[in-house]
Amino acid sequence: WLGVGASVFAHWLISSIVPLTSKGRALVGPSLAVLAVLARCYTAFEQCDQSDNWVLHDYGLGHLDPLPRNSILVVKGDIITNSIRYHQVCRGVRPDVRHLDQSMMTYEWYTPQQSKHLPGIKFPKGLYHPYKPNGYSMREFLLENALNEDEPTFLCGGWYHDEQEGGGIPGFILMPMGACDIILPQSEKIGFQRWAKLSKAVLPNATSYWPPAPGIFAIDTWEQVAMTDFWAMWHRRAEDILKACPEGGQLDYIIKNAGVAWGRLQRPESIDKMLYYFRKFVKSSAASPEEKREIKAVIKQYAKYSRNQK
């Protein structure tokens, strides 16, 4: 209707106001249309210019690039799926990684159409749906595909459907590994030192995928989601190390620093952890009288805060 209205207006303008020849009149309409388009481009160019926006490009590459060779990558979420698929299909990045979207696996067309692009992947039945006659559960899928150490299986974005009380998949556990979690049989345990080494190796390189400063993108944009996920990758690993380190030894400086770190998380549930390690520290023989006075003052202040929160 806008086009019809513009056409009528242009016809009236040309025939009633503009004293031109027939040839000149014929050029007025297209000229006005071109000017309108150029005006819109001028006023909206800054907002629409995404030539320097590499956030989602780096986000997808940060998930894909650090993975071990021949990995299987099971994902949930549009932003993860599409950013990874862009790199694999359009740029040919990491074709050795088999990438499966859990929501797409629930459709009957997925297995016959996509299996040829996923060499070595075994689909137990027609589709991922444990409540259909021709469907399989995620446990069945993992039993077929996630037990080969040479082809590790990772999960990004969480499970599409929990298959046991309390969440997760029966018989399997998750351990944080970079942007994702590695899926392991429940009987398999990775020691802390090995986990720390492996999880660091698959973290996105911060210098290569460094996100822009906060506030550049609106909170409801995919870029903001990607930036939040990026920082969560690093913070989650640091928090897991924080949880594990003090239990592995009794060094006083580790105990004190653990208390400091828990306190700086600034979450209500972290205050109790901070108090636990600070109380443990002041009982140690290595703490100087001055340190004990400072830590006791913090304990007194935050113990009151912790009681009020409860």
Structural description of this entry:
- With 310 residues, the chain is α/β, with parallel strands linked by helices.
- Helices cover 52% and strands 9% of the residues.
- It contains eleven helices and seven strands.
- The strands form two sheets. It has a five-stranded mixed sheet.
- α4 links the parallel β1 and β2.
- α10 packs antiparallel against α11.
- The longest helix has 27 residues.
- The N and C termini lie far apart (61 Å).
- The mean pLDDT is 83.
List the helices and strands and how they pair.
Blueprint (H helix, E strand, L loop, with lengths): L1 H15 L5 H27 L6 H10 L7 E4 L2 H13 L7 E4 L8 H5 L12 E2 L6 E2 L1 H8 L7 E4 L15 E6 L2 E6 L6 H10 L20 H23 L7 H13 L3 H15 L6 H21 L1
Parallel strand pairs: 1-2, 1-5, 3-4
Antiparallel strand pairs: 5-7, 6-7
Helix pairs in contact: 1-2, 3-4, 9-10, 10-11
